[in-house]
Structures are given as structure tokens and as C-alpha cells.
Amino acid sequence: MKPNLASITIATRKSRLALTQTALVGSFLRSRFPGLAVEVLEMTTTGDRQTDWSLEQKGGKGLFTKELENALLDGRADCAVHSAKDLPTRLPGGLVLAGFLPRESAHDVLVVREGCGLPKTIATGSPRRRAQGQLLFPQTAWREIRGNVETRLEKIARGDADATILAAAGLKRLGLNAWRGVVFRPLPLTQMVPAAGQGAMAVECSEDRQAFFEGIFDAVTGKAVRIERRFLDLLGGGCDSSQAGHFCNDELLIYHEACGFQRFPFYGCTSAGLDEKVASIVASLGL
Length: 287
Prior knowledge:
This protein has helices spanning 16-32, 46-49, 55-58, 66-73, 127-136, 149-157, 168-173, 210-213, 219-234, 274-285, and strands at residues 7-13, 37-43, 79-83, 95-100, 108-113, 121-123, 141-143, 163-167, 182-186, 201-206, 244-248, 251-256, 260-265. With 287 residues, it is an alpha/beta fold. Strand 1 (7-13), helix 1 (16-32) and strand 2 (37-43) form a beta-alpha-beta unit.
């Protein structure tokens, strides 16, 4: 029998996107458990505080998740909401991924300053976006950018750089289908393979809370993100890695600097064989 909770506390970052995603998870939980009281624990992470850090140089693993995970481990929160792409491939002991809400579109968007044709400078803190973007724009200079979604849009609009690259899912959840001074140009998955978990909202909890969430989240998204995270983990990558993997339509689309873009079919692969299939793909790359 599923355990009962009269109330639940969700840990989240304080950004508008994080709070928007947390509200969506809270609404979902209330729809599944009528009468459930949902409280939100807003937290500031190391990544939020260190706005002058280069995430590539400092490493991005856990910078936006550690404080939330500590709140799970010490009992201040029952679950935490993350953008799945921000999560390290290996969680701290005692914590698990309870599940995911249905995934939004996972593709990236090139945000270009209005009036700019071919961008001469593109700002991003993502090694993955830069590695693939250099193939699309070989003559472009690349620089770092930090800040929330709105801050980055404003920086491009005022000319700090000609363009940046953002996740379509975040823009959609914030209701941003336009921004004064910039133009949105969607990037096909085949030109910019998304980060593992991009577009998905992950709910993390302690092992002793896992039974409460069992069977309520989206199985299709869960399968896809499991495959993507396993692929990245076997390559030794993480949320700050230039490697990328995206699973959809029974195919794993990957990008790696050593072997470029590739597709691998999963047709007929059972749930029990997913990890083995991913391991065989990684072995075939010879990396």
C-alpha cells in the first residue's frame, strides 16, 4: 500500500523558471493526491551565488543541486524539483529520482540580436553548445555568459554578444515566445543534440520517500532520460560535458567530439535490456 502524506515540502531554486517548474510539479501532485498540502522551500545554490564563475572552468556538477539535495537528506524537504539536465549522472547516496513530468520539446534555440545575420560572437557557458555550435558557425568567436533566462536575453538585446543558445523548454515554460531586440531561431535536433534530460523536470527524493511517488510519473519520459543519463555516465560525462545524447522515437541521437553525430536504434529493446543496449553503444564508439 502506498504511504500517505498529508503535506509535502518541495525544495527548489529561487529563479523564476525553477519556481514555475515547481508550481507545475505541485499542481501535478495535488491532482494525484486530492487534499495534499504543498509547501515550497526556496533555496539558493552555489551556482546561483557564484555568478562570476566560469562553469566550464570550475566544473558544473552539483553546483545547482547540492543544497537542495542536502535538504532532502536532512529531512527539511520531501522532494526537490530540478531541470533534469542540471543533475549529475550519479546522485548522492540515499537519494533517487522519483520520476519526471511529461517532457517538453528538448531542442535548443539560437537567440540572435535583432538585425544580426550571421553572429560574430555567441555567448554560452555550455561546452556542449559550443562544441556543436562551432560546426554550425566555424568563424564565430565564443564567450561565457551567466544569469537567468531573462538576464541572458537582455544581454543579447543590448549587444553584449550577437547571440546565445537557450533551451526551448525553458522559454516555453516562462511564456517567452518573443523578446524585444532579439529573434528566436529554433535549432533542429540533428544540428544541436540536446543535453541528457533537457526539457524534462525531474523530481528527486530520499529512498524512504520513494514509495510515495511510485507509479505516478510519466513512464515515457522516464525511459528516455534513463537512457540518456546512462549514456553520459558511461562516457564519464555530466551536466557540464560537451557530450550529448537524446532519446526519442526509439532512437538515441548522440554527439561526441571524437565521432560526431550518430543515431542508434532501440527498436524491440525491452526495458530490462536498456542498460545493456546503452553499454554496447558506448563500447562500439571505441572511446
